[in-house]
Amino acid sequence: MSKTLTVALVQDRDRGSVDANLKRIESCLAQAHDAGASLVLLQELHNGPYFCQTQDVNQFDRAETIPGPGTERLCAAARRYGLVVVASLFERRAPGLYHNTAVVIERDGAIVGRYRKMHIPDDPGFMEKFYFTPGDLGFKPIDTSAGRLGVLVCWDQWYPEAARLMALAGAEILLYPTAIGWDPRDDDAERCRQQSAWQISQRGHAVANGLPVLSCNRTGFEADPADGAGIQFWGTSFVAGPQGEILAQAGIENDEVLVATVDLSRSEAVRRIWPFLRDRRIDAYGDLTRRYVD
To answer: Which residues in 95-183 belong to E strands, given as ranges?
Structure first.
């Protein structure tokens, strides 16, 4: 018996202020509701710009508590439209202690779980280790009326261990709020390689675990305050099925609400013909806990 779920991904650009971004999100949640969605995924750090291109102590002022003013508005909108919403916020946990945190809001407006980003990058243009403490909540799916959600965040999408642990804990869907793009100085060939690798890695998680994947990216150009080079976020948010098949994909520069329907019952069927979980050699994987096998 099929178990279908209509999902929506809100791909957008920074609108210049927290209020403007939240107003846009509220409008998009209304669109998702009208399209019949039950679950909505927002992009990474959707309340503002991607501020991690430089190291600036003043950016910590963007952080907020959870619950806090941002979640209050999102909870109200989730309740108004009867949606499960996966949001992405800069969490102020305590003075000097901050996380990149995904928050899961139930359709009645209650916060039912959170996930703190575990893998924190430190690359040119993505200086997140300056801002974010690595997550300490583990890889635990969050139960909602839309299903058991395996929520991960951006840089986590490159790590098969994270997806696998969510799957082993019973996740029915893998969700990735994301902020990734090109350095405008990259040539077309390098851009193609990067974007292709990004999508392939996540489709691989779908295949290896027999689960649908939702990946919601930012779009638009954001200048680097230091040198102006900045990041051109490549959008292309997508929904993939449990064999890695693309069910829906947004454009590169489009601000859009991407809607798709996934059949959660297909995971059972796919895992019966591709029983990867059955054939795992758990007795032989001890070295995975080592940094490198010298």
So the answer is: 97-105, 111-116, 122-123, 126-127, 142-144, 147-151, 173-177, 181-182
Catalytic residue among 44, 106, 128, 222: 44
Tokens of 163: 């997806």
The reported pLDDT for the residue numbered 286 is: 95
Catalytic, out of 75, 91, 106, 117 = 117
Token digits of residue 155: 């840089």
pLDDT band at 226 (very low <50, low <70, confident <90, very high): confident
**Catalytic pick from 128, 154, 216, 222?**
154
Q: 216 an active-site residue?
A: no
What is the set of domains in the chain, with CATH numbers?
4-271 (3.60.110.10)
pLDDT digits (tens, 9 = 90+) for 27-60: 999 999 999 999 999 999 999 999 999 999 999 9
Residue 44: active-site member: yes
Distance CA 91, CA 97 (A): 9
Question: Which ranges of 96-142 does DSSP label H, i.e. alpha helix?
Answer: none
**Comparing 1 with 39, which gets the higher pLDDT?**
39
